[in-house]
Design goal:
Number of helices: 5
Distance between the termini: 16 Å
Structural class: alpha/beta
Order of helices and strands: HHEEEEEEEEEEHEEEHEEEEEEEEEEEH
Mean pLDDT: 86
Radius of gyration: 22 Å
Oligomer: single chain
Low-confidence stretches: 1-24, 275-283, 296-301
Length: 302
């Protein structure tokens, strides 16, 4: 067999693996309604879906998993301490590193009789945040193929992902009525630049383009204040978010204080630009295997 022919077959096999995996890569925002790397301070509202908190759960009375039906799932995970006055988990388990992390001044209420408080000494949010950081960086690097004018996003191409790159002032500096009805792609990624962002001059009403298809990627943000209801998921892995209005989507933040509801329109990622680590390892193995094979062939013909 010729070396060139062997390489083509190996490359084709690797390419097929990559193409297959690109459509099956999960993003944590699909699984969790709320992800916070650090502390979560609850000042009101509720989280309809599941939540993963890497720091402490602080504040007053908080409610989680009010729209979850699976009593056996781990619907709230808290790596740090729980000092909130009252924590109610409507459905599913509460997972903590150690039950001693629950303050004696906190009331924890597990509503479903089939659910419980579970200890997991190895509980960590590190891998989840690494996946989110990788996704944010990759989305940031995608070129715009959509347009935006007077609050209306438009895309009529054939790509599965519509992308619009903008600075925060362009999107949130005017009293826009955001409109997503002219977007034909399976996902809309809105990459938003800016470190200190106030989102309080717009209206965003549900329409034919589902909230689960939209992702706002605040890849530079350090502080975000949200005072108007948001349609779509928020990805801001390094930011403190002060959330004072409803989100119809998932939220990922560095730290978070909220007095609003987070509804479980979890982000439904159709195609991901982020390769699976296993895929990269497999591709590397294929290429290394080809290199070894080529060296053997060259020695025989020398």
């Amino acid at each position: 067999m010729k070396v060139g022919s062997s390489f083509k077959k190996l490359a084709l096999a690797a390419g097929m693996v990559l193409a297959t995996q690109a459509h099956s890569i999960g993003l944590p925002l699909e699984d969790y309604n709320l992800i916070v790397a650090g502390d979560y301070t609850h000042e009101g509202g509720s989280v309809w879906g599941s939540a993963f908190i890497g720091g402490n759960l602080l504040g007053g009375a908080s409610e989680f998993a009010s729209r979850i039906v699976d009593a056996e799932m781990d619907s709230l995970k808290v790596v740090g301490e729980i000092t909130a006055s009252h924590v109610k988990v409507q459905t599913g388990n509460l997972v903590v590193k150690n039950k001693s992390n629950i303050s004696t001044t906190s009331t924890v209420e597990i509503q479903n009789h089939s659910s419980e408080i579970v200890e997991d000494a190895g509980l960590s949010i590190a891998s989840v945040m690494a996946d989110l950081q990788a996704a944010s960086s990759n989305y940031q690097g995608m070129a715009s193929n959509a347009s935006f004018s007077n609050g209306k996003f438009s895309y009529s191409g054939t790509d599965k992902i519509a992308v619009y790159n903008a600075n925060a002032d362009e999107l949130f500096g005017k009293d826009f009525n955001f409109d997503f009805s002219a977007v034909s792609a399976d996902n809309l990624i809105i990459n938003v630049s800016g470190k200190d962002i106030s989102a309080d001059k717009f209206n965003m009403n549900p329409g034919p383009y589902a909230a689960s298809k939209i992702l706002w990627n605040f890849y530079q943000a350090e502080d975000i204040t949200v005072n108007r209801s948001i349609l779509g998921s928020l990805l801001a892995v390094n930011a403190y978010i002060d959330l004072n209005a409803r989100v119809d989507g998932s939220v990922a933040a560095g730290s978070l204080a909220t007095s609003a509801q987070i509804h479980n329109w979890n982000f439904e990622q159709v195609v991901s630009p982020v390769p699976l680590p296993g895929t990269l390892i497999l591709l590397g193995s294929v290429l290394l295997g080809f290199g070894a094979y080529r060296r053997r062939v060259m020695k025989k013909t020398a």
